[in-house]
TrEMBL record:
Protein's organism: Methylomonas methanica
Protein name: Uncharacterized protein
Source taxon at top rank: Bacteria
Amino acid sequence: MNSDIGWNDIKEQINHWLKAPENGYLGSGFGFGDKLASFLKEQPNDSVVNQIVSKMQEDIPVLKQRKVSINWVVGNNQVVIVVDKEIETFDFDTLSV
């Protein structure tokens, strides 16, 4: 990880992004929380995962040059996001989407 922006900073940005509904800011397409919540009801597939990662990298510039992956288990209300080699589980029960 870049020493200027640490893993905790990136986790906070991702957490904020997960909470924000798409187009949640006037004049900006930032966010994906509402769509992501609906995607979590289905099994992950490459097309959906790529769509989510692309949107995340578009909205959070620090992720553009990093390897990002996402996974989840249907019915678990959690999403696991890997950035480079750092892993974090985000719990949708505590997110207000």
